[in-house]
């Protein structure tokens, strides 16, 4: 199974991001992500078996012990790739709680021998794939409001012609 761990976003933030995406879609082409698919990836595990899923769930349980809500501070738009075929994203400030959660999740996966993508942490939510960005597309007048998140999920990602389908397998929440 193709798996990743993500911080889930509160519904209010998802709605604000969807509004931002609608505005951006007027100025660029591409395949925009449905608001139900918004998440902030903490670790991409790739393909793991059932035992790996159980170990990853255990890592999440341990990483979230004693967690306080994680502050999410949108801090701008960006892209990966070229302007003609970009992944468009909304970035978030590396707040201490967010960076700490990222480290705890990855440490838990590492201790359990689970491989994951070791790329440096770049907190973001993907808005569109295969976007064609024109000059000024990334300049917006307002970003979503700051908010807190308190839920991490292990997701299975199934690729389809219409885009990935995310299925939650294990969720840990806190207050």
TrEMBL record:
Coiled coil: none annotated. It catalyses: a 3'-end 2',3'-cyclophospho-ribonucleotide-RNA + H2O = a 3'-end 2'-phospho-ribonucleotide-RNA + H(+). Signal peptide: none annotated. Its EC number is 3.1.4.58. It is an enzyme of class 3 (hydrolase). It comes from the Bacteria. Keywords: Hydrolase, Ligase. The active site is at residues 39, 124. A motif (HXTX 1) lies at residues 39-42. It holds the Pfam family 2_5_RNA_ligase2. A motif (HXTX 2) lies at residues 124-127. One of its GO terms (molecular function) is ligase activity. Belongs to the 2H phosphoesterase superfamily. ThpR family. Hydrolyzes RNA 2',3'-cyclic phosphodiester to an RNA 2'-phosphomonoester. PANTHER family: RNA 2',3'-CYCLIC PHOSPHODIESTERASE. This is RNA 2',3'-cyclic phosphodiesterase. It comes from Olsenella uli (strain ATCC 49627 / DSM 7084 / CCUG 31166 / CIP 109912 / JCM 12494 / LMG 11480 / NCIMB 702895 / VPI D76D-27C).
């Amino acid at each position: 199974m193709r798996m990743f761990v993500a911080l889930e976003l509160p519904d209010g933030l998802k709605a604000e991001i969807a509004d931002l995406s609608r505005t951006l879609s007027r100025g660029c082409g591409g395949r925009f992500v449905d608001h139900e698919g918004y998440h902030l990836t903490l670790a991409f595990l790739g393909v793991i078996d059932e035992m790996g899923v159980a170990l990853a769930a255990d890592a999440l349980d341990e990483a979230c012990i004693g967690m306080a809500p994680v502050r999410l501070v949108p801090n701008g738009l960006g892209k990966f790739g070229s302007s003609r075929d970009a992944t468009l994203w909304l970035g978030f400030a590396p707040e201490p709680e967010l960076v700490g959660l990222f480290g705890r999740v990855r440490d838990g996966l590492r201790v359990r021998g689970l491989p994951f993508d070791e790329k440096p942490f770049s907190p973001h939510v993907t808005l569109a794939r295969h976007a064609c960005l024109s000059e000024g597309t990334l300049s917006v007048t307002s970003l979503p409001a700051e908010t807190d998140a308190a839920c991490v999920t292990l997701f299975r990602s199934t690729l389809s012609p219409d885009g990935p389908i995310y299925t939650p397998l294990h969720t840990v929440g806190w207050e």
